[in-house]
Amino acid sequence: SVEGVSKVIVYENDTDTTDAQGVPPHSFMPIVLGGLTTEIANAIWKNKPTGISSHGNTVVTIYDSQNLPHSIKFKRPTPVPIYITVNLTTNANFSGDGAIKMKEEIISYFEESYSVGDDIIYSRMYTPINNIPGHQVNSLFIGTSASPSGTSNIAIDFDKIYSLSADNIIINV
């Protein structure tokens, strides 16, 4: 409920050893996209269990009602740039702004479908592309660098999130 926060995932480790994500025993690690650092830390402080520490590489000191300091930690997801190239053959039903609309559909699809740590699924890229009428896809490539040549899923680590802008989407008509 923190203003500006768009994505959150929380990893909890209730074991006696550090887990695969590096979360220490008996602690939790929120990964938060967006929002102001202090507001996020305050929300964590108000909602965290007593005696259980938060973990992450962003640290904010919060003072309790007795003015005692507490370190509240969380992590920001690391962006992974995604590049997409779509090669199309169009017909009369493909509008003059079809390529722009297709980019908008792809970006909207990513915002609705993917969160922190979600792999990018190659075959799902056809869903937003096919929302625009008047074309056939001749080839589709995705990757994490410009001029992608991949046709496989893109693995995203647990503490990372996709980064996609219209500039990273090439629609060749």
Give a verbal description of the structure:
The protein is 18% helix and 35% strand. It has helices at 37-47, 98-113, 126-129, and strands at residues 5-13, 27-34, 53-54, 58-63, 69-74, 78-81, 83-90, 135-143, 160-163, 169-172. The strands form 4 sheets. The protein has a 3-stranded mixed sheet, with no helix packed on it. The protein has a 3-stranded mixed sheet with strand order 8-7-10, with helices on one face. Strand 4 and strand 5 form a beta hairpin.
Strand and helix map with partners:
Elements lengths: L4 E9 L13 E8 L2 H11 L5 E2 L3 E6 L5 E6 L3 E4 L1 E8 L7 H16 L12 H4 L5 E9 L16 E4 L5 E4 L1
Parallel strand pairs: 2-3, 6-9, 7-10
Antiparallel strand pairs: 1-2, 4-5, 7-8
Relevant terms:
173 residues, alpha/beta, 3-stranded mixed sheet, 10 strands
Strand order of the largest sheet: 1-2-3
- Main beta sheet: 3 strands, mixed
Separation, N- and C-terminal Cα atoms:
42 Å
Amount of helix: 10-25%
- The number of E-state strands comes to 10
How does the helix and strand content classify structurally?
Answer: alpha/beta
Concise synopsis of the structure shown:
With 173 residues, this protein is of the alpha/beta class. The protein has 3 helices and 10 strands; from the N terminus they run ββαβββββααβββ.
